[in-house]
Amino acid sequence: MFALSLKDTGALLGTIDDADLQLLIDQLEEEHETDTDYYVCPDTIEILEVNGASAGLLKILKDAVGDSEGVDVAWKKV
Q1: Which of 3, 30, 38, 49 has the most C-beta neighbours closer than 10 Å?
Q2: What whole-number distance in Å separates Cα of residue 65 and Cα of residue 59?
């Protein structure tokens, strides 16, 4: 399992499984090899949904973004 949190505050958003993490890694851009955070906006969520993101991952990300333009989300193994 992996914990998703807001990068700026460290606030826990929820947990995801290996398949959801792999989807994030495959679909989103990493700045370097050890990058563990992503900028997520409504367009990002739509891309993930089209590419098979689980309902749980989509809910976590939609709740995190809310009405904002986007947020930085970090992950770590728990």
Answers
A1: 38
A2: 10
What is the b/e burial string over 12-28, where b = at least 16 CB atoms within 10 angstroms of the residue's CB?
A: ebeebeeebbebbeeeb
Residue 29 has pLDDT above 90, yes or no: no
How many domains, the chain?
Answer: 1
Q: What is the mean pLDDT of residues 9-26?
A: 96
What are the DSSP calls for 57-73, one per residue? HHHHHHHHHTTSS-EEE
Domain carrying residue 20: 2-77
Q: Which amino acid is at 70?
A: G
